[in-house]
Design goal:
2 copies of one chain form a homodimer. In chain A, strands 3-2-1-4-5-6-11 form a 7-stranded parallel sheet, sandwiched between helices. The longest helix of chain A is centred in the N-terminal third of the chain and has 22 residues. By secondary structure, chain A is α/β, with parallel strands linked by helices. Chain A has a domain of 228 residues: NAD(P)-binding Rossmann-like Domain (Rossmann fold, 3-Layer(aba) Sandwich). Chain A is globular, with a radius of gyration of 19 Å. In chain A, helix 2 crosses helix 8. At the A-B interface, helix 5 and helix 6 of A face helix 5 and helix 6 of B.
Amino acid sequence: MELTDVFKEKRTLITGGMGFIGSNLAHRLVSLGARVSIVDSGDSSMGANPFNLADILNQVDLKVADLRDDQVIERMIAGQEYLFNLAGQASHAGSMEDPLADLEINARCQLSIVEACRKHNPGIKIIYAGTRQSYGQVRQLPIDESHPIDPVDYNGISKRTGELYHLVAHRIFGLNACSLRMTNVYGPRMRCRDGHLNFIGLWIRRIIEGKPIPVYGQGTQIRDPNFVDDVIEAMLLAAASPISNGQVYNLGGLEAVRLIDLADRMIETAGGGSRVLKPFPEARRRIDIGDYQANFSKIQRQLGWQPRVALTEGLSRTIDFFRQNQEHYW
Amino acid sequence: MELTDVFKEKRTLITGGMGFIGSNLAHRLVSLGARVSIVDSGDSSMGANPFNLADILNQVDLKVADLRDDQVIERMIAGQEYLFNLAGQASHAGSMEDPLADLEINARCQLSIVEACRKHNPGIKIIYAGTRQSYGQVRQLPIDESHPIDPVDYNGISKRTGELYHLVAHRIFGLNACSLRMTNVYGPRMRCRDGHLNFIGLWIRRIIEGKPIPVYGQGTQIRDPNFVDDVIEAMLLAAASPISNGQVYNLGGLEAVRLIDLADRMIETAGGGSRVLKPFPEARRRIDIGDYQANFSKIQRQLGWQPRVALTEGLSRTIDFFRQNQEHYW
């Protein structure tokens, strides 16, 4: 299957398309010849960055609007063939500070989207951006999709709720929806301003700025960073195949590393930098999930996906991007 | 442990206390010498019935208010020692008709309650009314608490979301909360007007009215009806013990029966009546969970609870109650 054949001229909608993953997806869909519409709140604290779309602004239809307005949703989904549903509140710490907003964005908006699709555009295919956070405290590694859902923070709850609305609407109404549970995604266009949405962007920024990388605790936690191009490939494969309908798939990176080794790898790749161990902030420690490594054999088996970009290669491309574009991300 | 010693003079709050389970609990708490406050929206479609509290109205502090107003919540929980958190939207079919209201009542309100408690009354003990509906399609019988959570309707999602907020707040903030996952609860003061919230009440009404009981499909579905007094005993035991903090417990009845046998048992107990097989309505069939029987050995082991009222005895007491009080329930 050639993805160009699948998406050429297709009407695709990306919610949250001004953010990190959404904007990378928009670039890829434009290059595949798709007709790309984007709706995004433009809220930088949620990850929106206008520069992410600057070079394709004439090739996409961008609407800045709040998806909490149900009319916006209905208008945007009309006539679309694919919905890449990436809008969301992704900050774990933020969900603890403003849990009601977290629930509204990640659950109520998602319910509105699902209901609007099944009523007004029942043939649309939806790819929902799920998260490994819903698993909560990890019981055994690597984690497959049958691992208990036992989130440790409010964000893990609201994201799971949004996912369940997609799955139940598939079961009851036959909605063509699936969820990809993502782990630490990294790459060009990610948020680097602070550690609010992810730590990798902040680390890269500090390396480029010549400041030490803060590593919490002893840095022994395991993570499996997933390069954004690989994540987008998974979204496109899931969109292209009816096999994915009603399914949940884990995504994961090629390599699982201790955070301290990830820091060292970054420093090595960047050709310089340093790291410093810091005590785990209490608010972070309480919602930490421990080690994480995805078992992604289900999507490998069913859709033929696997991560292809090695960690060092991905870090190198990410650091290069931000060295060239830092004024838009710091 | 004598429950009178535990609850005498204790300040207890029941949300949804005008409803079926809440009002039976209020009667029991009054008889144990507790100080009982109740907040209820008074919405009869959600199960509220003023007659449920008529005989103890002078012994409880009843406030009719909508818990969707956060100020109501904060005011009501101040100074309370126990919160029996029964307010909710319990209709499966209703959740499919108005899913946004279902989410707001069962998830957003619960989040507000949990947040208000952990901020303003962190020592309070909370008993949350969970539901077997969250398990969804049953994979093996009897179901214990480790069964996957895979709801088949929107109500199963929202109730699970409300439950998760309690459990996560226990984990992160040490909130003394637990959840009891209830199966078909029946008994005096249940809603009999229609089959909107439960089918047992409707069946009893039709028997008393001399009309045939409608049994869907072949009536081979298995259910384990739980008499309301047993459910209340479980809530009190869970409230009384710190062992329950952060835990989820299944409740279940003494006997699991096919629905057709339940109908026959009712007819026999009532001394007359008839039943008629009806095709499963499509909207119901789609959200049906199949057979259900709880494994309640966890609460038996940890809190010493078990159902005590035999099905025939429970049905007999329920039918007697409604024969005497039908004008308030039809």
